[in-house]
Amino acid sequence: MGSGLVAFLTVLDIVPRLTVLTDSRRQVRLYEIAFVMGAVVFTWVDFREWAVFFPPISTVGIGLLSGVFIGLLAAALTEVVNVLPILAKRIGMEPKVFWLLLAMMLGKVVGSLFQWIVFVSD
After folding, report:
1. HSE (CB half, 13 Å, CA atoms) of 41?
2. How far apart are CA 39 and CA 83, in angstroms?
3. Average per-residue pLDDT in the chain?
4. Where does 1-122 have alpha helices with state H?
């Protein structure tokens, strides 16, 4: 899952967006290393099935950081969805945009259900 998340964030151009917003273009390599190391470490922790317990007050900070991440991800997804009609027009799929979006949505639903039924039902 970690490498999939890194690939997903790469496709959505999260790192360039962060560097522009924070005016930290010189630290691009640091952002990339942080994404990859985070994916590797947390994938390893996931395989180990460790549990970490935090004091209730620390969950405020974790919640805020999670909210920032979700906000950036939602903004990036919005831009991707806005690009789809333009791309469809350029490659001649304009009449099929509805079906393209429907296929993406159904793929997400079926993939989520498969993951839930196969891995979570244990």
Report:
1. 6
2. 27
3. 80
4. 2-11, 14-22, 28-48, 58-90, 97-115
**CA distances in angstroms from 81 to 4, 5, 9, 10, 48, listed in the order given:** 19, 18, 15, 16, 36
Neighbours of 14 (CB within 10 A): 19
Residues 6+ apart with CB under 8 A from 101: 81, 84
What contacts 5, CB < 8 A, 6 or more positions away?
39
Closest C-alpha to 104, from 84, 75, 76, 74:
84
Please give the single-letter amino acid code of residue 93.
Answer: M
Angle at which helix 97-115 crosses helix 58-90, to 10 degrees, equals 140
37, 35, 36: which is closest to 17 by C-alpha?
35
Residues of the chain under the 70 pLDDT cut? 1-6, 8, 11-12, 80-81, 121-122
pTM score: 0.44
The answer to whether residues 100 and 84 touch, using CB atoms and an 8 Å cutoff, is yes
